[in-house]
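Input set for joint prediction.
Command: fold jointly, output tokens.
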Amino acid sequence: MSKAVTIYIPCDAAALSVGADDVVLSIEKEAQQRNLDIKIVRNGSRGMLWLEPLVEIETANGRVAYGPVTQKDVQGLFDTGFLNGGDHKLAHGLTENIPYFANQERLTFARCGIIDPLNLSDYEAHSGLTGLRCALAMSPQDIVDTVTQSGLRGRGGAGFPTGIKWKTALETDSDQKYICANADEGDSGTFADRMLMEGDPFSLLEGMTIAGLAVGATIGYIYIRSEYPRAVKTMRRAVEIWRDANLLDNKTFTIHVRMGAGAYICGEETSMLESIEGKRGQVKVKPPIPAIEGLFGKPTIINNVLSLASVPIILDKGSGFYQNYGQGRSRGTQPFQLGGDIKRGGLVEKAFGMTLRELLEDFGDGTYSGKPVRTVQVGGPLGAYIPPSDFDVEMDYEELTEVGAMLGHGGIVVFNEDVDMAKQARFAMKFCEVESCGKCTPCRIGSVRGKETLDKIIAGDNVSDNLLLLEDICELMTDGSLCAMGGLTPMPVRSAIKHFSEDFKG
Amino acid sequence: MVKGVKAIRQICAEHDDSPDALLEILHKTQHKFGYLSKESLIQIADVINISRADIHGIVSFYDDFRREPQAGPCVKICRAEACQAVGGETIAKHARDKGIKTHDVYCLGNCALGPAVMIDNELYGRVDAQKLETLLKART
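tokens >
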């Protein structure tokens, strides 16, 4: 019998949500009936989510893509000889040549969708561990300097320079330091952390380990939201494999996985630390900053999953390599995520600087519903609604600020013409009411009063006075809240009123 | 109840009876018994040496923890923006009209393939009212 044909079918939660497991069963059954020798590898997702389940066949020329494949397509695929890369109505040619994929700049997600997520030798064969090996030969100061020079900024939303945070922890003396990976990816429209943890978990572990070497931390925690059960499972297994591989010679770095329990606020760093300590996830006053006094009162680096997973390639290829991507003060690449009413939703990793319009039109190809776009919300539930007149904004930290928006975690949610912006503004306040930790009054009470005031506006009750009152509440929440939850909730509200005032006439 | 006490003590022991592992302990206890009974919480508080008031404060803070047994599957419907943009609200309304017990959640991380629903930890995408009914029927 000839050599088994390798078939890649993702085990990413998004692919599974549209039937990837069923497709695996059908393909196995069909191959058995036809007496064909196949080997199925469960990879992560390539990020072209509209093509999921995306089935790839390994051929001499590279992987050939078929998608979206359903169970009822399987027989037809075998009939047309898809095991040899044969043509079919679901065929897209070589995966690497699909424009959506080919036009990206994959650094952080270089391996995602390509390797078997839990195969460490596969990881190593695709440039994994080289960053760690470089770091092991460097002094802590040199590692921190490299990360600082790369220009990497926090991908969680705040955009704080990662190297500066590390420097602070390095320079703080302590008998114990910690690294925390913030995987509490709660923003609607974002799924990059999940995709990475399910598709290339070792890159996060490598990034955390390098962070540990850099600042002198020996314990790491990954705090993953409970809404991501598959990511939790994959990371727990990856941690075991990583530990057993004993990669650090005489040094130690122990990683624990902690699962959240359904509180959005635990994505806020001080709240996350409280939660890891087994307490209510309530926000703490800063200072002291966590890099000086964090988990259990010790210096703690808290970085987003994407920030940490970008570190190995920076160490491997040098700060200059990474720094060459991007523009202005936004260096490197950003994994953007296209969601909502979008035809080609998925993950697009590109250097900072492409326009929002390019993302929506060239990659997203318009709406899923076919209706015109009315607005997009960038940066999660605390991000601004951007009108089509601003779609030429260049996607980086500073340019988005210029148009009154923010990048956040890079999520982009598309709304069609049916959206009622007064309702979206009300939702922003309601979301804050539901998810507020309750510690500070502007957030806890402001969100409730904001929601009530919007209800009056929607009902046509004294609209102009209530709009003034709402602005007052927004100002108070922005200036007086303890963290970004209450502080940024006014951003979607104000942007909705500013750009879509016609929806606020009662 | 004696059997339950033993199981809880074992769960706590797996985490060195450490108060900082409380969330893990609560998750495991809920997984084992289906919910967190008053007796379970008293036991856990006792073993890891925190007050009953503290454990009540912690359990009530997090949406995941149930104080009552749950009848039927746990159905979470995403009510966040990306799913709103593709009609997630209509599924929620359908479920309400049909008397299906659901939980509102804000983002399941399936924003490109919404509306998203999670049933007993299994994620589903591109769900409409009919698909929800089919999925639930398959579980009964």
